[in-house]
Specification:
The complex is a heterodimer of chains A (about 80) and B (about 140).
Chain A lengths: L1 E7 L1 H7 L3 E6 L4 H7 L1 H4 L9 E4 L2 E3 L10 E5 L6
Parallel strand pairs in A: 1-5
Antiparallel strand pairs in A: 1-2, 3-4, 3-5
Chain B lengths: L3 E5 L5 H7 L7 E8 L3 E2 L2 E10 L1 H18 L4 E7 L1 E4 L3 E9 L2 H18 L2 E7 L4 E4 L2 H4 L2
Parallel strand pairs in B: 1-5
Antiparallel strand pairs in B: 2-7, 3-4, 4-6, 4-8, 5-7, 8-9
Helix pairs in contact in B: 2-3
Classes of the chains: A alpha+beta (about 80), B alpha+beta (about 140).
Chain lengths: ~80, ~140
C-alpha cells in the first residue's frame, strides 16, 4: 500500500466533494490511481479524455507512483 | 522582450498586451481574442467561470509558445488566459504574435491557441439563464 495525496479539479472536485484527500492505495501507476478513485471522483469519462500530473509535472497514465506522491487528476480540459 | 504566458484573474487590457509584442523587426502582428459568447450547444449562456491550475498551466503555456517559435520562427509572442468569473463579451484569452512576415505570425498564433485549448489544465463552467450550470468538455478531446 502507498500513501498518496490525490487532488481533484473542476467536475472531479465537485463529485468528490473535496479538492484533495490522502489515501492508502494499492496502486502501481497513475492509471491505477484514476481507476481506484473512480467512485470518489464519480467520472464516467474515458481515461483517454482525462489528464494526470504527478508532483506538479504532466505524466502519462503508465507513469509509476511512489509513496508520498501527489497525483493530480484532471477531467477533460476546455481552455480558450 | 521575452515571450510571455500568464494567467490573470483581472480584465485583459488589450493595449498593454499589444505593446508587449512590438519589435522593430516585426512587419505585423497577428492577434486572436477569445470572447465569452451568449450561446453554446443551443443553450443561452449568462456567464462563464474558468478554473485554472496555474502552476502547471503556466509551465505548459510557455512550452506551447516555445514549440510555436521553433516551428514558425517569430520575434515576439504574448498570451494571457483568464481565470474566475467572466461576463458575456469579456475577453477570455488573448494571443498575439509578431514576426517579420505575416505567414509565421498567422501560423504561430493558430498553433498557440489550438494547443492551449487542448493541453492546459483549464476548465470552463457555463452558467445558463435558466439557472443551471455545467462543465464544458473540450471539443477535440471529446471527439477522440
Amino acid at each position: 500500500m502507498k500513501t498518496l495525496t490525490v487532488k481533484y479539479f473542476a467536475m472531479f472536485r465537485e463529485h468528490a466533494g473535496a479538492s484533495e484527500e490522502t489515501l492508502e492505495l494499492d496502486a502501481a501507476t497513475a492509471r491505477d490511481v484514476f481507476e481506484q478513485t473512480r467512485s470518489r471522483h464519480g467520472s464516467a469519462e474515458p481515461i483517454g479524455h482525462c489528464k494526470v500530473a504527478i508532483n506538479d509535472e504532466m505524466a502519462d497514465w503508465t507513469a509509476s507512483v511512489k509513496d508520498g506522491d501527489v497525483v493530480l487528476l484532471f477531467p477533460p480540459v476546455a481552455g480558450g | 522582450m521575452a515571450d510571455v504566458f500568464a494567467i490573470s484573474d483581472k480584465d485583459i487590457v488589450v493595449d498593454e498586451l499589444r505593446d508587449q509584442v512590438k519589435n522593430a523587426g516585426s512587419g505585423g502582428v497577428c492577434v486572436f481574442e477569445g470572447w465569452v459568447r451568449n450561446q453554446n450547444d443551443g443553450r443561452t449562456v449568462q456567464r462563464l467561470e474558468y478554473e485554472v491550475y496555474a502552476p502547471l498551466a503556466i509551465v505548459e503555456g510557455k512550452k506551447v509558445i516555445a514549440e510555436a517559435k521553433q516551428r514558425f520562427p517569430f520575434l515576439e509572442a504574448s498570451c494571457v488566459h483568464r481565470s474566475g468569473l467572466l461576463e458575456i463579451g469579456d475577453c477570455a484569452v488573448w494571443v498575439g504574435v509578431s514576426a517579420p512576415h505575416r505567414d509565421e505570425a498567422f501560423k504561430a498564433c493558430r498553433y498557440i491557441i489550438d494547443e492551449i485549448k487542448v493541453r492546459l489544465p483549464i476548465w470552463k463552467k457555463e452558467h445558463y439563464v435558466d439557472g443551471d450550470s455545467g462543465w464544458v468538455n473540450c471539443e477535440r478531446c471529446a471527439n477522440v
